[in-house]
Design brief:
Structural class: mainly beta
Oligomer: single chain
Order of helices and strands: EEEEEHEEEEEEEEEEEEEEE
Number of domains: 2
Number of strands: 20
Distance between the termini: 94 Å
């Protein structure tokens, strides 16, 4: 499949939404894969363990919004006296809200197309899973949570630990959330909170991700209580027999 007009090779396909124009004379096999990244090729390959044979076209300089974006794969139409327009071949308008998979919004997962031959703008055709750039989506079983994190009551200034037990095809990645927002650096099966403060009271959950999908845990509520504080201790007194003492 040539990603250019064979009669006019300088008129190439583009990815609208990223302001990216494909290079001239690029031809792809059916269901072939190419990579674009916001970083340089070496950094991207090292971070995501990209297969050696994956084709990397280069960097894009647009920006994908976490809250949602429309991406359109477009080919050039036959030109006329005014130049040429673009025709949309495929498109997706992803979102960070249901029915789109929420785990791709800051939980370490990426949106992956399950069936490249199916309609691109159908949320049911996308899954949030461990990033596998340069390789096809791995169909299989999403993680299964065996033991959910449990709600707790803890004393102000003490420690608390939340944990989850999950099973599934490895590797399993974890991302803890507090009141719905990802907690930076909290990516193991347990969450240790030291010297807990009142601001840390709230709802905690964890998203577990593997190469086939993601599973969100139940919400565990952390309640922080403050022990009574004695401001004034009782004082010694001398009283006459039969009188009152306070």
């Amino acid at each position: 499949m040539p990603l250019f007009d064979p009669l006019r090779p300088t008129n190439t396909w583009r990815l609208n939404g990223l302001a990216y124009t494909f290079p001239a004379n690029l031809t792809m096999p059916p269901f072939g894969l190419v990579l674009l990244a916001a970083t340089n090729e070496l950094a991207f390959r090292l971070r995501y363990n990209v297969p050696t044979g994956a084709v990397f076209l280069g960097q894009y300089f647009g920006q994908l919004q976490n809250s949602g974006e429309r991406l359109e794969l477009q080919r050039p139409d036959v030109p006329d006296t005014n130049g040429f327009a673009y025709i949309t071949v495929d498109e997706v308008r992803y979102n960070d809200k249901s029915p789109w998979p929420a785990a791709a919004d800051g939980s370490g997962a990426s949106l992956q197309r399950k069936n490249p031959a199916a309609y691109g703008n159908d949320p049911a055709n996308w899954e949030a899973a461990i990033p596998t750039p340069g390789a096809d989506y791995v169909a299989g079983q999403s993680p299964v949570i065996l033991i959910q994190p449990q709600s707790q009551v803890t004393v102000l200034g003490s420690n608390a630990t939340l944990s989850v037990t999950a099973t599934g095809a490895p590797p399993l990645n974890y991302q803890w959330r507090f009141n719905g927002d990802p907690l930076a650096g909290q990516t193991s099966s347990s969450l240790a909170l030291t010297s807990v403060q009142s601001a840390q009271a709230g709802s905690y959950s964890v998203i577990v991700v593997n190469a086939s999908g993601s599973t969100a845990s139940a919400i565990a509520t952390l309640t922080v209580i403050r022990l009574p504080l004695i401001l004034q201790h009782p004082a010694d007194q001398l009283v006459r027999p039969g009188s009152n003492a306070v």
